Amino acid sequence: MKILVPVKRVIDYNVKPRVKADGSGVDLANVKMSMNPFDEIAVEEAIRLKEAGSAEEVVAVSIGPAKAQETLRTALAMGADRAILVETDDTVEPLAVAKILKAIAEEEGPGIVMLGKQAIDDDSNQTGQMLAALMERPQGTFASAVKIDGEHVHVTREVDGGLETVKLALPAVVTTDLRLNEPRYASLPNIMKAKKKPLETKSPADYGVDTAPRLATTKVTEPPVRQAGEMVEDVDALVAKLKQLGHA
Questions:
Q1: Quick one: three-class SS letters along the chain?
Q2: Domain spans of the chain, in order of start
């Protein structure tokens, strides 16, 4: 079985984003970029399934600028076998991403498409669900455990009432949550080996997908600055202050 793992290049989760002076978007100049953390978990899980003998090949794919090759090389250093970059400088929206992934899945024939439940730059949480709908295949979202059982995959997912386990017929789409695993660090030897692994470059036009944005960002602003708290001497003073502020 082959596992297809889409990964996205985003601002590193340790970096505090800065808004452009004109409010048109987030400033990406000289900002550290890395693999979306949820996608990193998906890569790790795919590699673990391969190591357990449940999969034969792990293919990483990214849709974005030429610099997304760095993100794919990270996936290859972690243990993916080969990579595909669909190069575009457009801001690709979830539906266009899903359409491209569907076309790639039709070419590659994976048993599982495994991707992060969302990207930390836009938090859309749409691509996996849209892809499953376009492919007309079952989906297991927010996975905290994945187990292959013959022609099916068991996905344990977190819901409001606790945990739910679904049994999906393969091929299927699985989106990963934080508690699924702890991604490995790529060792220096594997980083060097990753440079020699195959990385194919394509374009959205190769898959007949128009990536022109359907949405326009009108304004981006910094979150409001949190006001400093105020110390009170006792409970009575707290109640009085709350009444003064109209909260009691």
A1: CEEEEECCEEECCCCCCEECCCCCCEECCCCCEEECHHHHHHHHHHHHHHHCCCCCEEEEEEEECCCHHHHHHHHHHHCCCEEEEEECCCCCCHHHHHHHHHHHHHHHCCCEEEEECCCCCCCCCCHHHHHHHHHCCCEEEEEEEEEEECCEEEEEEEECCEEEEEEEECCEEEEECHHHCCCCCCCHHHHHHHCCCCEEEECHHHHCCCCCCCCCCCCCCCCCCCCCCCCCCCHHHHHHHHHHCCCC
A2: 2-244
* Number of alpha carbons in the 13 Å side-chain half-sphere of residue 236: 0
Quick one: pLDDT at residue 29?
A: 82
CATH code: domain 2-244 is 3.40.50.620
d(CA 170, CA 181): 22
- Whole-number pLDDT of residue 198: 96
In this prediction the pTM is 0.86
For residue range 159-215, list pLDDT tens digits in order.
888 899 999 999 999 999 999 999 999 889 999 999 999 999 999 999 999 998 888
Residues 46/83, Cβ–Cβ less than 8 Å: no
Query: Helices 37-51 and 68-78 meet at what angle, rounded to 10?
Result: 30
